[in-house]
Amino acid sequence: MDDFKSASTSKIDDYIDAHNLSIKKFMKKNRLWQINYHDHIIQSDAEYRRINNYIRNNPKKLG
Q: pLDDT at residue 39 above 90?
């Protein structure tokens, strides 16, 4: 996932340069991606259902 984040950030910065956009490029002080975030690619329908169920039901446990 880090390769994807790096490549996509680089492409966006190249686009900003190529089109002379007046927005900040993405660097350490202006991050595109959230740091210290756990990325995970869902690889099956069963895994999607498990994660979806967790997201829907977890707040109920806190209340």
A: no
